[in-house]
Amino acid sequence: MNRFLSAVFAFTVATSAFAAAPGGVMNLQAKAQNDGSVLITWDAEASGDIAYYRVYYAADSILESGGAYDDFEETEDSKPEYIFTEAIPAEGLYMAVMAVNMDGDESEYFMEEIQILPVENPDAEAPLPPSPEPTPPLPAPEESGSLALLSAESLTPDSVRLTFSASIQVRPKSAATAFRITKAGGEVLAIRTLQGEGNTVTLVTDLQQGGVVYQVQLTDALRTELGVTFDEASKAAFFTGKGEPPPASASSVSSVASSSSAPVEPPLPTTQPPLPPSPAPAPQVPQAPQGIQNITGLRLRVAPGANGTFNVTGEWDLASVSTNAAFLLVGQSFDAGNSFVSPAMVPANATQVNIQSVPAGHFGLLVQVMDEQGTLSSGVFETAWLGKNMPTPAAPAPVQPTPIPTPPVPAPVLPPVSAQLPLGTPPASGLPQSGMGFLAASLALSGMAVGWQRMRMSKKAAV
Questions:
Q1: How far is CA 349 from the centre of its chain?
Q2: Is 0.85 topped by the overall pTM?
Q3: Both 386 and 428 in a single domain?
Q4: Residue % of the chain over a pLDDT of 90
Q5: What CA–CA distance (Å, rounded) separates 47 from 80?
Q6: Residue 289 lies in a domain
Q7: Do 213 and 94 share a structural domain?
């Protein structure tokens, strides 16, 4: 009797030969009747081609249980209401509704649910309390037929796995035109071929550079081939390359800018390597590129705030950061690092940030170092659970990454400072993103730093 989210979310990209499934059902209401039954009503589904509705119910929340339910009832026609005559248990029942069209196609996902509790006075309206905890929205496409790129992950130094919101079929010969992979500065990573399975596509690429952030984008050629619309907010994703890090140049050691210091791409393999297996390998600890050291000792201090929120202070040490650092990028995550909001740029000598009114949940901070050429370090991430009965952390000694030998640098001239960050807005879509928002802003700020460095070089040359 389980209705899993995987069955709800996954769908094959439709062609014009098939009718679209009905949309989700919204605005559920309930009212107790004099005979002890409950009248359930909702807004009629907008397509108009509805044969009947199914009313699902369960003792536990359907949305929070991954779509699991106990049983369902069906209406006699397309009228958006149903009288529920079964006895309501003391613990109450959760109800959700789906529409069924004339072809027998059902809504692809539950949009919302209500909880029905028994009442002593049947003449009064049945109370409809909100769910005890906010329910994250289901990661479905924003509109029927739209396609969203959920995440990108480097599997090996020459392969990247993409995960989509629906099943997708792309011809291997279209790999180079359907997708585009670039890194900061616009340098393109060539795509050789691809292999698709369900809602995942594995791209075979030229050798990546370890620790370098890449962006993969869906192109208009893919849109034309599939005949679908893209979710414009989710048509790109980011991943960190695996393999050998880019070689250190004279400019990264002496802090003197040079227009010829770009790393050289390794030679292409003479034969096509086999595609990697579908399961993801064990995660590896990312290593910072040579010459760009991470901050160390990142820790979070949490204090109760107003209206059930929390005030968070992030602190770190700058002992390993070189004086040629231009900025620090600080990103906020509200789901333990699965996605990030746009980062804030703080001075390179800042050692803490303060964030007010953070809502309950898995909150985290990611701190990256950007040098004068716009290159980013791999970053250091720390998370804390904010909620009721939150244990007081004993401030354990943070695990330090293996230091990368760098030339000794003098202590920063400016004293450490504290920065006040505005609270980021969690993504409204609820999709399990790959950190696209944070890394997109990181690349944009990297471009700003490169432009700033070139302006400094121009001024120096003019003098």
A1: 29
A2: no
A3: yes
A4: 27
A5: 13
A6: no
A7: no
